[in-house]
Design goal:
Length: 191
Amino acid sequence: MSHSSLQLSADPSENLTALLAEVANGSRSAFEALYRATSGKLFGICMRLLSDRAEAEDVLQEVYVSVWHKAAQFDAARASAITWLGMIARYKAIDRLRVLPASHRHAPIEWADDVADPLASPLQYTETTTQRARLDDCMEQLDDRRRMLIHTAFFEGITYEELAVRSSSPLGSIKSWIRRGLMQLRACLEQ
């Protein structure tokens, strides 16, 4: 399957998992999409550990070379895609810290353990997964139009004005449908 035929989900973690599967099959377009979706977060991990932009950029490149070669080793049953990618970035950055001359180090390697990990803890991951499942259930209870409008506006970042143009509907109607849908979602989530 080429990346162009890949069906992306509203769930970013599912998208990353699908992209990694395509990268494992050698899809360069999926690799590019994966890079665009994750490079900012992974660069942040490298910068926190290395504190040197040039070193962090070099490590980030190593991270994606590793991802290209090891994508087939990713196991969604063991970790989310972003967790797996984050671990690669963290390990590569720590490896770089170990080989840097002392004059280039900004902090002892032991301090790397004190850096806040941007990835969710197992408890946070479980809570987030449970909340996401609840939201998905409540979204399914909406009529198709409201569900599509809310999904497009909030998960894809499309403005109400753009939605009105896309659906050939008055702006006031779009706002009203979304407002009613959000009220219905709130009521469902509070049950």
